[in-house]
Amino acid sequence: MHCVCYEELDEELRDVARELDGATGDLQDIKSDFEEVQSELEELKTELDEVRNELEEAEDDHQGTKNELEEAKSELEEAQSENDKAQNTIDDLQIVIGMANSELEEVRSELEETRERIVVLEGRLKAVVAIGCRI
To answer: Positions of the region Disordered (predicted)?
Structure first.
């Protein structure tokens, strides 16, 4: 009987040893899978850091572009203001030119009237001289 018990125990121990070997293999597989997942996690962390750096660079670029746009907008507003002032000056000068043209037309008209009076006076002077010469 002792033999049977020892044989059963021996068989049981071999079963346990096989199960332990299987469990050890499973544990090695799990450990290998864990290390692989851990490696992938590290790669993902590295990629995430790279993406964060790219995002920061993109945000910096965006802010730089935004600042340039604000500066350009300010310059445009300043140029528009100067353009408005120049247009006002042009409008004022056109008014002055219009007034000067009106005055010039008046002077031309007066000059023409004066020339006509001179012609009339010359004619009268010639008549007076002719009368004076006859006397």
So the answer is: 53-88
**Integer Cα distance of 102 and 86 in angstroms:** 24
> Model pTM greater than 0.85?
no
| Total residue length of the chain | 135
Q: Distance between CA atoms of 80 and 74, rounded to whole angstroms?
A: 10
* Distance (Å, whole) CA 13 – CA 21: 12
How many CA atoms are closer than 13 Å to the CA of 22, on its beta-carbon side?
A: 6
Per-residue pLDDT of 24-71, as tens digits, reads: 888 888 999 999 999 999 999 999 999 999 999 999 999 999 999 999
